[in-house]
Amino acid sequence: MTERILIRNGRVIDPASGLDKTADVLVEGGCIAAVGPDLKAEGARKIDARGLVVAPGFVDLHTHLREPGLEYKEDIATGTLAAARGGFTTVCAMPNTEPAMDNRSIIEHVLREAEARASVRVLPIGAVSRGRAGKELAELGDLAAAGCVAFSDDGAPVWDATLMRRALEYANGLGLPIIDHCEDPSLARDAVMHEGWVSTRLGLRGAPAASEEAAVTRDIALAEATGAHVHIAHVSTRGAIEAIRAAKARGLRVTAEVTPHHLTLTEEIVAFGSGGGWDLVYDTNAKVNPPLRSQDDVDACGAALADGTIDCIATDHAPHAVIEKLCEFDDAAFGISGLETAFGLCMRLAHDGRITLETLIERLTIGPVRALGLDRVVPGIGTLAVGAPADIVLLDAAAEWVVEPERFASKGKNTPLGGVTLRGGVAMTVSNGVVVHDHQRPTTSDQRPTSGVPVG
Amino acid sequence: MTTEARPDVVPAPFAAPSTDESGWKRRHLLDLDDFSVEELDLMMRTTDTMKEVLSREIPRVPALRGTTVVTLFYENSTRTRTSFELAGKVLGADVINIAASSSSVSKGESLVDTVKTLQAVGADVLIMRHNRSGAPYLAARTGHCSVVNAGDGLHAHPTQALLDLYTMRGALGDVRGRKVVIVGDLLHSRVARSNAWALTAMGADVVLCAPPTLVPARLGEALEDRLPPVRVETNLDRAIVDADVVMALRMQHERMQGGYVPGAREYSRLYQVNTERLARANPGALVMHPGPMNEGVEISHDVAHGLQSRVEEQVTNGVAVRMAVLWLITRTSTKQARAAAKGAL
Fold it and tell me: Which residue positions in chain B have pLDDT lower than 70?
């Protein structure tokens, strides 16, 4: 059931239209009905947004919902509730499930489960290769027909260059991009973190920045050769950014995303944790792939996000069970549970003056939509245009809060930010006209609001 | 001590240096990367005391009577485990040895559960050897028993570095200003890492030497105190000039099969510590090796067993150093404090 909602007196920022002014937003029938000053709506639910930013709901191109098969880490209900808490109203589900999302029936299963249990919109990403094994193409045409918005073997690179070339050509015929996890496995063999002074200090095997840069450079060459669209997942090094910048300057169809953690955290967190001390911690919650890099790489990511070389922020939300992190560093799983901390973490760049709030919101909304062309699937997504789906987030840019992983909606409590104070919170999330997160009255996965989000 | 019948076997107490003046507060020995000069000095002086105990006709003192020491070794080791076991027994501790076959969570009990179990049965000190870097830090966070790192992955081997320092001081008096050259597989060496921290803290001029493929990232760069302030030199003939100490590291055979260096023949030609090379060092320079040696690869047979070799002395000193470690880290545990208060020592 959707209701009429009138969001009053917020600072409305809609980067897609360049709007940034105090206004009201009226929601009717699950859509944006009007945006303007002093709107009247008899009988509508009134939400006072004074002091808050009203923006389109965030769109995450890179979410691991873990269903089917890995529900002990996360499932569609908990993962999308975590998304709602983080201000995301659309998540693109990565296909490294068990079995992999490499055929139509699994995609249909995911969409059916999402329709029944998700708090926000779920758009599936199909596997590039059968079983994500990197050997032979999955049935990309069938996957596209089932509703996939892109293809990726994420978690693993498409390492065989010929397979990548064929995938780009084939997907291009379907009008869809390939999302590549860029890593040269021969350079990153056995690596568990970034290669640098911290890996030397800790005696951990490091992946050089070149392992990412070599793969990005190859993908750019293949994008040029095929004329197809490649989207580089979770960019993390200065060299990769320079390659993408040069490719864009040449007019190639290359887009890229960066995670909140690669924008803000360095390799030092692995050694010392985020508590501020200098005792060695070997923080397995900071073990992620690509690894947290050097300060120079972090600075480059922030600058590239601000200048548009990187199109958007994507969380790479990668929830894991406690025991997968409570172990020796070498044996711990890669990944950070990131949906619920994404906005607060990214706001560090805005508070530091490295990006404007408007641009930051752009990179979380219309930026990812344009990167993958999602508006062809869901018209109006990522905007507050009249008639667009009523996906809205209310943000308190100055709110300070302490990250308490045990209170996450996600099953994945694996964050290196436990106990850290973030500035920037999500006050409310409206998904397709339904309030799916209210900071004043948080919901649990047992009392999930019925969103009625049409998926796919 | 009431049960001792013959007066000549009543263990005499020893006069260990006071832990107060150095500000000793450690319950664990995980690495030497944050050790002060005072702490290292206390460790050396305590080792002197322990050497005196070992020189007695009956080398036994009841200093750690009632203390349960567990050696938990996930990797094979002969000298390290044996010397820890002996150290514990000389001090009167109950020593239990556990050889764990696998470190993988998937293959059995997790490290955290193992540590909790050992604590539950009464372990006071856990001496841990593990093939995963950082594993002792996880163990130290898991519970209340003291953890001694007996070598973790590629990261640290603090008691080896302490016995190396002790051996050098015994021969040189002081390492300050002395040139120490460590040559070998730096990338995979926990011995080199811990030695670099301890020796630079004590003011030695440390030169680390390896083929370029076996030098860890950014080692030797000026990075404030993030990495030990060592110099890196990839040419041993240059590195060894005027050295006061030359330490060769074990070169694993699997790393000489073309992955890192072209082969054992070329490695030994360029990096072996042999008589000709040693002649470039200072006269009487000490030759050391943490063992086990690959004679003919990283060190020649005649140098390994020559007059300048301190290899056997290193092993002997290992027991005394590990006694000092066990003694010092148990000064701060509540159980030992209680026992001391009762006059048990």
Answer: 1-12, 21, 101-107, 333-345
Two tokens, residue B293: 């040696």
ipTM of the prediction: 0.92
**Domain around B322:** 18-157+318-335
Q: Considering CB atoms only, which of B30, B103, B223 is closest to A328?
A: B103
Chain B neighbors of A327, CB-CB under 8 A: 105, 110-112, 138
The single-letter code of the amino acid at A114 is A
Asked if B134 and A195 come within 8 Å (Cβ–Cβ), the reply is no
Residue of B132, B216, B226 with shortest CB distance to A329: B132
What pLDDT shows up at residue A277? 85
Contact A23, A35 (CB under 8 A): yes
A203, A327, A328 member nearest B156 (Cβ) = A203
B304 plus B215 within the same structural domain? yes
Question: Number of structural domains, chain B?
Answer: 2
B153 and B185 part of one domain: no
Judgement on whether residues B300 and B176 belong to the same structural domain of the protein: yes
Cα A250–chain centre separation: 27
Q: Beta-carbon neighbour count of residue A242 at 10 Å?
A: 16
Is residue B225, in this structure, part of any structural domain at all?
yes
Q: How many CA atoms lie within 13 A of A40 on its CB side?
A: 1
List domains and CATH numbers for chain A. 57-380+401-418 (3.20.20.140)
- Pair B176, B256 in one domain: yes
Handedness of CA A238, A242, A244, A245 (dihedral sign): positive
Helix axes B190-201, B158-172, angle to 10 degrees: 50
Window 287-346 of A, Cβ < 8 Å to B = 323, 326-331
Q: Is any Cβ of chain A less than 8 angstroms from the Cβ of B185?
A: no
Do B81 and B53 lie in one domain? The reply is yes
What count of residues does chain B have?
345
CATH code (residue B277): 3.40.50.1370
For residue B106, what pLDDT is reported?
A: 47
Residue B220 lies in a domain: yes
Answer yes or no: do B96 and B176 share one domain. Answer: no
Contact A331 B132 (CB under 8 A): yes
CB contact at 8 A, A199 and A184: no
In a domain, B130, yes or no: yes
Say whether A327 and B105 touch across the interface (CB within 8 A): yes
Looking at the fold, whether B62 and B98 belong to one and the same domain comes out as yes
Q: Tell whether A279 is within 8 A of chain B (Cβ).
A: yes
What's residue B253's pLDDT?
Answer: 82
Separation between Cα atoms, residue B88 and residue B112, nearest integer Å: 24
Whether A331 and B104 lie within 8 Å, measured CB to CB: yes
Residues from chain A that touch B137, judged by Cβ atoms under 8 A, are: 280-282
